[in-house]
Specification:
Layout lengths: L2 H15 L6 H16 L3 H5 L2 H5 L4 H8 L5 H13 L13 E5 L8 E5 L1 H16 L14 E5 L6 E3 L2 E4 L1 H7 L9 E2 L2 H4 L4 H11 L5 E6 L1 H14 L14 E4 L8 H5 L7 E8 L2 E5 L8 E3 L5 E7 L28 E8 L6 E11 L4 E7 L13 H15 L3 E10 L5 E9 L6 H15 L1 H7 L3 E9 L1 H11 L14 H13 L1
Parallel strand pairs: 1-5, 3-6, 3-7, 7-8, 8-9, 17-18
Antiparallel strand pairs: 1-2, 4-5, 9-10, 10-11, 11-15, 12-13, 13-14, 14-15, 16-17
Helix pairs in contact: 10-11, 13-14, 14-15
InterPro entries: GH3 (IPR004993), GH3_C (IPR055378), GH3_M (IPR055377)
Pfam family, one: GH3_C
Protein name: GH3 auxin-responsive promoter
Length: 508
């Protein structure tokens, strides 16, 4: 009998009984007040006169008027660089122990995001919220006694000028509470292995020792790990070795493009729960099974603002124009893409993290990630966002009975001087007729996006497609960044990067 599991499940269910529905607008107002109060005597808070903002009749409007938008380069050049020089009380009070390294999809140079003690605590509270939300999924009691495989970056953090540095998944894993360590796999020793291939090899070697009930990590790397375990033990599916696997907590990127290939590795149905943990904080998590949308973590150290995602508000490098209008949670609308802006206990203020979102339920503050500001393809007016591209990939999978887990695109002139969209698809079947795929992709995008349809009738000449093995994308990441962790593939490339990509593919 699952005695411990029944106890844990009972605590979760009981917590749900005594937890009232959150008023997200009110919660956000309180979070902003708390942020301003706590930081009002920092260098940043005094420069932008937080005390005056707190005295205003509408602190949301006063805050938006007084403080400009920041992207990483702007806030780092003006403020965060001081932290590396030993200064304290810069954008958040007190000392800090960590910097989160975020290469993301932008290349080899890592951003260094400050991770404060308050940020670690906010992530912990949002993690507890995610655990408590499991009551909505009605898992059996014995599920709560199974082990959890968390495949993030290495927990062997590097010391740099008295700070510890690593990706946020490694920092979070290194701060798991003591009572959770018996559930956590692959365990501290394996998690500290920096080389991703070596770490996955050790996971495969030890897989039979574990009773995994849940997985957590970025889909592309989770799939590669699962395939390694399957191959190492000569299995048909991962359930042949982990029969009690019931949950996969996805994060980092949209799960849609990986859905078909992920479930192909399973022998039983697995519940997929989306989460949104970025280097700057834990933004949102899915809390109910009837939707794959995620609820913003409106109570735990992050104040959210939203800029309508329109070409006229975006600079060529993906940053925001300072005159771009902003709305708070109480004024957002459905069926509108927004650029997400955060102010947080990390000491980030009106900070562009680079993601775009859409609200699916305003009262519940539920969202979906729709893309990246830098991956918005607006050459000759096509206005393609990542969610439209992802949807087109799913359409191709159905039409050609294949799996497409990765892709990248560049808009540039062809040999005839006309503009084309050049696509590389990481398809399970590399022998697809590329002309037929290009025509089908073109039709799907025309049907899904009126701006693309207009562009195709004018300056956009057409679509060109090349199909390559998905492994080529993984090798590209290993060559230019590294494997595993928070690393994600660029969905849209500039011409210079695309030239290097094509040379890389040709050499494979």
């Amino acid at each position: 009998m699952a005695i411990l599991g029944n106890i844990i499940k009972g605590i979760i269910d009981l917590q749900g009984v005594f937890t009232s529905e959150v008023n997200h607008v009110e919660a956000q107002h309180n979070v902003l007040k708390d942020l301003l109060n706590k930081a009002k005597h920092t260098q940043f808070g005094e420069h932008y006169n937080f005390e005056s903002i707190l005295k205003s009749d509408n602190i949301e409007k006063a805050f938006a008027k007084a403080v400009p938008y920041f992207d990483y380069n702007r806030i780092n050049d003006a403020w965060w660089h001081k932290l590396h020089e030993g200064e304290t009380n810069v954008t958040w009070p007190g000392d800090l122990s960590y910097f989160a390294l975020s290469s993301g999809t932008t290349g080899k140079t890592s951003k260094r995001i400050p991770v404060t003690d308050d940020m670690v605590e906010a992530i912990r509270k949002s993690g507890i919220k995610q655990v408590l939300a499991l009551k909505n999924f009605d898992f059996p009691a014995d599920f709560f006694e199974k082990e959890i495989m968390m495949l993030g970056s290495s927990t062997d953090l590097e010391e740099n000028n008295e700070f510890l540095e690593g990706e946020i998944s490694g920092i979070s894993a290194s701060n798991i509470p003591f009572w959770f360590k018996s559930y956590y796999k692959p365990g501290e020793a394996i998690a500290k292995i920096d080389d991703w291939d070596a770490r996955v090899q050790r996971i495969a070697e030890n897989a039979k020792k574990w009773d995994i009930g849940a997985l957590s990590g970025i889909p592309s790397w989770i799939e590669l790990m699962l395939q390694k375990v399957i191959d190492y033990h000569n299995l048909d599916t991962i359930h042949d070795i982990w029969p009690n696997l019931k949950v996969y907590t996805s994060g980092g990127v949209a799960f849609g493009p990986y859905e078909k290939s992920f479930h192909a590795l399973m022998g039983k149905p697995v519940t997929v729960i989306d989460t949104y943990l970025a280097s700057e904080g834990y933004m949102a998590t899915q809390i109910r099974p009837e939707t794959d949308a995620m609820q913003l973590n409106t109570e735990h150290g992050i104040y959210f603002e939203f800029v309508p995602f329109k070409p006229e508000y975006i600079n060529p490098d993906g940053s925001l124009k300072q005159e771009a209008p902003v709305v708070s949670l109480q004024n957002v609308e459905l069926e509108q893409d927004y650029v997400l802006i955060i102010s947080a206990v990390s000491g980030a203020w009106r900070y562009l993290i680079g993601d775009t979102i859409e609200f699916t339920n305003i009262e519940r503050a539920e969202i979906k990630i729709t893309g990246r500001t830098k991956f918005f393809l607006n050459t000759v007016g096509s206005q393609l966002s990542v969610n439209k591209m992802d949807a087109a990939m799913k359409g191709l999978e159905e039409q050609f009975s294949t799996k497409i887990t990765e892709y990248t695109i560049c808009a540039k002139r062809g040999e005839d001087g006309e503009f084309y969209h050049f696509w590389y698809l990481g398809a399970a079947d590399e022998n697809l007729d590329e002309t037929n795929v290009a025509n089908a992709l073109d039709d799907l995008l025309i049907e899904a996006n009126k701006n693309y349809k207009v562009a195709r009738s004018k300056a956009l000449k057409g679509v060109k497609v090349k199909c390559v093995a998905p492994e080529v994308f993984h090798d590209w990441n290993a060559e230019n960044k590294k494997k595993g962790g928070q690393v994600k593939m660029e969905r849209v490339m500039a011409e210079d990067k695309f030239e290097a990509w094509e040379a890389f593919v040709a050499a494979c």
